[in-house]
Design a protein that fits this description.
M1 Pyruvate Kinase, Domain 3; 6 helices; alpha+beta; single chain
Length: 162
């Protein structure tokens, strides 16, 4: 059972992680991480989620999703993977996958491709927000100025740079 205070909700309805990242971590730990092993609901191929813009909308199958906030590594995640120093290691790598909100529910199957819609103009990527949320005050200033995050996450970054 997850911690409802830090997991789930409208902005964290779907967790997305790249197969390429699972392969990277498999090589680092000499473990074969299967799709879904990091808790993702959707494992993708060919998308670098750290470069996708916050609030980027995309369709997959009949669903329409919108990139919302980064995953922040925690002790529960580390315990699940049985990896010492996991939070620090995962953070240093900088590719956290992406959480998405559901704009239109639908059916997603393995054969479906991701189709990105118009890009937001702010230029703030998931990787930038992850770095900001993990304590990079310089990047946090840019993210706060763009005001592209849900209010709760925006306030956290305002507090960080204050």
């Amino acid at each position: 059972m997850g911690n409802a205070k830090h997991h789930g909700g409208a902005d964290k309805a779907v967790y997305i992680f790249a197969r390429e990242e699972l392969d990277f971590w498999s090589e680092q730990g000499d473990v074969n991480y299967a799709n879904g092993m990091f808790g993702e609901n959707l494992t993708t191929v060919g998308v670098n989620w750290s470069e996708v813009l916050i609030n980027q909308r995309f369709s997959v199958g009949t669903a329409v999703l919108e990139v919302s906030v980064p995953r922040q590594p925690c002790r529960t995640f580390a315990m699940w993977l049985e990896r010492q120093g996991w939070v620090k290691t995962f953070t240093a790598h900088g590719d956290c996958g992406a959480y998405a909100r559901v704009l239109a529910p639908g059916i997603i199957e393995p054969k479906h491709h991701i189709v990105f819609h118009d890009r937001p103009e702010h230029g703030i990527t998931m990787g930038m927000v992850f770095a900001a949320k993990m304590g990079n005050k310089n990047i946090a200033q840019d993210v706060v100025a763009a005001h592209c995050l849900p209010e709760h996450h925006h306030r956290q970054l305002v507090k960080l740079i204050s």
